[in-house]
Amino acid sequence: MISFVALVLAPLLAVMIYLWTFAEDQYASTAGFTVRSQESSGANDLLGGLAQFAGTSSASDSDILYEFIQSQEMVAAVDAAVDLQGHYSALWPRDWVFALWPEASLEDLTWYWQRIVGISFDSGSGLIEVQALAFDAATAQAITKAIVAESQTRINALNEQARADAMRYARADLDEALERLKDARQSLTSFRTRTRIVDPEADIQGRMGVMNNLQQQLAEALIQYDLLRGTVTAADPRLTKAQQHIDVIRDRINIERQTFTSNNTDTGGVGEDYPSLIAEFERLTVDREYAEESYRAALTALEVARDDAARQSRYLATYINPTRATEPEYPRRAVLAALAGLFLLLTWSILALIYYSIRDRS
User: Fold this and answer.
1) pLDDT of 140-191, one tens digit each?
2) N- to C-terminal Cα distance for the chain?
């Protein structure tokens, strides 16, 4: 009985005296918010489902904000706005359990932050609810307002970073596409300068027209030769001259045909065979068309990035504005006293069992 009184009743009485005599009332302020986006959620939900199915995941804006609220940076920002150090150390050492010691550093204040600020986060819906405790209602509400303001500032910073990245990548893609287009057009110009041909297909069509004309002249010459051979003797000079005319046309046809597949420049060729020229011209034309399409796509992407940068794609949606308490809710003295009594009783029971076990064995 003496141990029960010393280890249970006396400490419990001391706890109750402290809670109802020295512990100051604390007021609670609650705020709830989430991060919303103006982008379409259908594709994001689909991609998110595929990523989850594949076993990979990425942090959402709400996850980032949840970690940021618990960070030392948030504590420093709220302390600068509300003076946490001065408010929570004002009651030291009278309420030494719930107050903060005056010499506390920023790291100590960050540890103390976990006691005065409670965060509820639903990862499925992205809803964040924050509750702050203070020794007066105005300070508690000021803390939640500062948390909401700093969270909005961080979301704005994420927006600015996303905008800057999008614009930088779009400009880099546009510059790359522009250089590719310049190179493609320069290559095509160099080809035309080297070959003195604007379009090999048009040039070869012109040469085919010459070939067709020669073929027509050859046919007419053969007809004239046949008609002449039927009316004169074989030794007639006109027949010999007609044969020479036919031979000259045939030689010219052969020479013209050779210009399509040889590099001879004596007959007006360009020093390269036409199949190679056409293949090179088509390749350069395809490169130029691809460069033009890439340039137009890069311009479109830059315009889209500029439009996205002109509006805020992420914003903080507050569904519970920072509340102002009308009466203190904390500390919950009855709950704390009951928990202290239960803990003391369990401790005394364990010690008593250990004592009787040792006494029985000895």
Assistant:
1) 999 999 999 999 998 888 888 777 877 888 888 889 999 999 999 898 888 8
2) 22
Short-list 274, 281, 249, CA closest to 259: 274
CA 267 to chain centre: 61
For 283-289, which contacts have Cβ atoms below 8 Å and span 24 or more sequence positions? 284/184, 284/187, 284/188, 284/191, 285/188, 287/184, 287/187, 288/181, 288/184, 288/185, 288/187, 288/188
Q: Measuring CA to CA, which residue among 159, 142, 124, 158 is closest to residue 31?
A: 142
Model confidence pLDDT, tens digit, residues 15-49: 999 999 999 999 999 999 998 876 544 444 444 44
**Cβ-based neighbour number of residue 41 at 10 Å:** 11
Q: DSSP 3-state assignment of 103?
A: coil
Q: Which residues contact 116 (CB under 8 A, 6 or more apart)?
A: 88, 132, 133, 134, 143
| β-pair partners for 318 | 33
pLDDT of residue 38: 66
Q: What is d(CA 31, CA 144) in angstroms, rounded to the nearest whole number?
A: 6
> Using CA of residue 249, residue 251, residue 252, residue 253, what is the dihedral sign?
positive
Measured between alpha carbons, how far is 250 from 255 in angstroms, rounded to an integer? 9
The amino acid sitting at 322 is: P
